[in-house]
Design the sequence.
């Protein structure tokens, strides 16, 4: 099976959201390639021991967002994304991680200026040569 | 119409109101977890659904009609204590089920006995409680029903066989079966179920699509350095439950969490967090008694 998806039913995050996130991440990092077939709804539900309706809902949302396409009888496939689509997927994945980090910083009482300074330092450390990698 | 429809169900035993206005529906392919403390009305609801007892009021539709003998072609019921014949073996029970149910799948039943490590030649009277539960499950799943009603289906089973039950439930749902199950094991329900109904003293206190509840129900935790005027928050319709312990305020939010965060943030807390709620946390906040007196400090 392409991509090794895993959801955590104990977290308070909707399972279909978790699944969508993982599919997008797999595509973003190249673990799922354009044209690659995804497991069937039933297969993935059984593999993850989660409700088939949950998987079906994640696939519907992914299809609506243009990430995958489903053809009746053949299954669901990763779409041949253009550059814009791939960029958007990458941004979505990064946004989820950053949201959580900023939320935590706020929860422990860091003010906006301090957080901005901290983020600038971290960005500097990971992007030492300016715009490129 | 959905395979299972319960509308304003009432059932009274003498002065005791066991079920007091329960409504829910289970569509095909859905697994609905019925949760609640002991005595909250789960088993009585099941008994009414199956025609084992006469409801006081309300409407029940199972496979398109009221509880009736013909529905048992499509409905499988696993009670908390399976009604089995102590002097007969597991194989005898399979044979009885084959004669009783048209769709009974004997090869599958034998494979399921194996899955639950059951010896078909052993008399039911010699089995443990968990093994008896397993025999009841084998009979139910081998009948390939369109509707399943399971009362505590994993009670007494070891973790490996509990997992097998989950797998069977997922497969049945994928094949279009409508399933309602009660369980004290929230971990099982939050994995397999896509809907939950939480009962407390015969009433529904929380109900809905589980992923929608996960997305909507949040906990906002704020700590204030100085006392603040929180009266407005206490009457806020978006907040289901309000707790205050010293300088910490906990708000159980069931709508517009971002808006609540903004409003609480405007009161100038020293810390403010938006926390997800898993099913166990949702369950406890839904069935717990309100305890304002012990929580009010300052």
Sequence:
């Amino acid at each position: 099976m392409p991509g090794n998806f895993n959801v955590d039913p104990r977290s308070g995050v909707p399972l279909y959201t978790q699944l969508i996130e993982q599919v997008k991440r797999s595509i973003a990092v190249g673990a799922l390639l354009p044209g690659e077939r995804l497991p069937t709804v039933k297969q993935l539900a059984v593999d993850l021991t989660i409700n088939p309706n949950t998987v079906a809902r994640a696939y519907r949302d992914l299809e609506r967002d243009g990430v995958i396409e489903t053809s009746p009888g053949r299954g669901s496939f990763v779409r041949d994304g253009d550059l814009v689509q791939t960029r958007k997927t990458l941004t979505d994945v990064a946004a989820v991680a950053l949201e959580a980090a900023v939320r935590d910083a706020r929860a422990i009482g860091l003010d906006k200026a301090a957080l901005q300074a901290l983020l600038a330092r971290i960005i500097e450390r990971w992007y030492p040569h300016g715009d490129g990698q | 119409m959905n395979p299972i429809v319960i509308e304003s169900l009432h059932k009274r035993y003498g002065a005791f109101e066991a079920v007091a206005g329960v409504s829910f529906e289970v569509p095909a392919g859905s697994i609905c977890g019925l949760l609640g403390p002991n005595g909250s009305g789960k088993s009585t609801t099941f008994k009414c659904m199956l025609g084992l007892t006469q409801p006081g009021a309300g409407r029940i539709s199972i496979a398109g009609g009221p509880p009736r003998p013909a529905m048992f072609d499509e409905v499988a019921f696993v009670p908390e204590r399976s009604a089995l014949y102590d002097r007969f073996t597991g194989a005898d029970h399979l044979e009885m089920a084959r004669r009783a149910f048209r769709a009974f799948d004997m090869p599958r039943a034998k494979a399921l006995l194996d899955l639950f490590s059951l010896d078909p030649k052993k008399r039911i009277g010699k089995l443990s409680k968990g093994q008896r539960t397993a025999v009841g499950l084998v009979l139910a799943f081998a009948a390939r029903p369109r509707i399943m009603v399971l009362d505590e289906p994993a009670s007494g089973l070891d973790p490996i066989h509990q997992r097998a039950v989950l797998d069977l439930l997922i497969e049945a749902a994928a094949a279009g079966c409508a399933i309602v199950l009660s369980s004290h094991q929230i971990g099982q329900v939050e994995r397999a179920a896509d809907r939950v109904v939480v009962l407390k003293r015969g009433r529904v206190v929380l109900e809905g699509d589980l992923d929608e509840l996960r997305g909507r129900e949040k906990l906002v935790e704020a700590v204030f350095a100085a006392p603040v005027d929180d009266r407005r928050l206490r009457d806020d319709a978006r907040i289901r439950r309000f707790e205050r312990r010293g300088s910490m305020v906990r708000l159980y939010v069931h709508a517009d969490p971002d808006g609540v965060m903004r409003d609480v943030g405007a009161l100038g807390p020293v810390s403010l967090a938006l926390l997800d709620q898993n099913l166990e946390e949702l369950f406890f906040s839904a069935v717990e008694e309100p305890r304002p007196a012990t929580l009010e400090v300052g």
Notes: The longest helix of chain A spans residues 83-107.
